[in-house]
Description:
GO terms for molecular function: metalloendopeptidase activity. The protein is mainly alpha-helical and 177 residues long. The protein is built from seven helices and two strands.
Amino acid sequence: MVGAVVGHELVHGFDDQGGRYDEYGNLNDWWDVNTAEKFYEKAECFVKQYEDEKIPEAGGQKLNGRLSLGENIADNAGIKTAYAAYKSWANENSDVKEPALPGFQNFTSEQIFFIAYANNWCSMMRPQHIIQLINTDVHAPGRFRAQIPLRNRPEFSRAFGCPKGSAMNPENKCGIW
């Protein structure tokens, strides 16, 4: 999912850290008061959303949504921009029949898109490593980098028919851009 990575990295220029630097790379608070207030108001949604996640294999410890805020915003923007690029390609190439992958014939192209995104974050981790990540890494553990951004995408919920209010289609979704 190169598109998600590119979108992710671009958004770092406008996240809680990148937004503090001007076009010359100098530390310069260039956002006006209204922009900054709106950004941080929307950012709090992500902080709460990630901090609501309890991790059973880490003794019920919760994610640190503030530590990982910039990466969480970037992950969410990455899937949003990648999906927009995919839909643009699909619309321009509506006459092209995408071949089904063996074993995935029962999935739509949109579902395959989201499966491919989530597959990027598949990994096995020992509980001790998960705890270390939660406490020190600016990135959430992989499964949350897959699940939470997808929960925030109405396109995902539609593609998989997730009922409103379910784990993968919560009533309250977070977004900034």
